[in-house]
Amino acid sequence: MQKDYRLDLKKTHPVRGIIQIGIGKLITQHSDSEKKIIEDATYVLSMVTGQKPKIVKAKKSISGFKLRQGMPVAVLVTLRKKRLLDFIKRLIIYALPRTKDFYGLNKNNFDNKGNINLGLKDLNVFPEIVSDKIKYSFGAHINLVGSGKTKEDNIKMWQELGFPVSKK
Questions:
Q1: Which of 6, 64, 159, 168 has the highest CB neighbour count under 10 A?
Q2: Which CATH class is domain 14-161?
């Protein structure tokens, strides 16, 4: 991080971060090792975020995706306050520089409110993950929400936190 960024409610600040690993496709392909997949995904996400993830189950069956009601689809963590700031710090310092072909966040990574949405193809870029214990490789979707009223306020806040934003 460029500055010591403290939570000041007058300034725009990060509100929450949602990190999700989708496991539905793996479970439909390897239905015999469902427990091992869930265990690995839970272990990986808890090591990265420092919090126990919630297992999200399918609400209804969809035959085209070979999905049954109640089948685990994802593991998900919602981070707030100090844990969120710690995760953002590790994301900026360790994970993003190690990511292959990462040249900064472009305009497609921001929604109309200025929140960040990005995906990582592999979570092994985080140093906390010991790849010897994990049989499967997982990617993750990361959603970071800011408290700014406009898109420009939030993008400025993310830049102050140290996120590399490309000019493209």
A1: 159
A2: alpha beta
Q: What is the pLDDT of residues 31-76, one digit of tens each?
A: 777 788 888 888 888 888 889 999 888 888 877 777 788 888 889 9
Distance of CA 80 to the CA centre of its chain: 13
- Are 166 and 105 spatial neighbours (Cβ–Cβ below 8 Å)? yes
HEC assignment per residue over the chain: CCCCCCCCCCCCCEEEEEEEEECHHHHHHCHHHHHHHHHHHHHHHHHHHCCCCEEEECCCCEHHHCECCCCEEEEEEEEEHHHHHHHHHHHHHHHHHHCCCCCCECHHHECCCCCEEEEECCHHHCCCCCCCCCCCCCCEEEEEEECCCCHHHHHHHHHHHCCCECCC
Given a cut of 60, whether residue 104 has pLDDT beyond it is: yes
- Distance from the first to the final alpha carbon of the chain: 22
Assess whether pLDDT exceeds 70 at residue 3: no
- CA angle 134/55/70 to nearest 5° reads 115
Query: Looking up tokens 């994301």, which residue turns up?
Result: 91
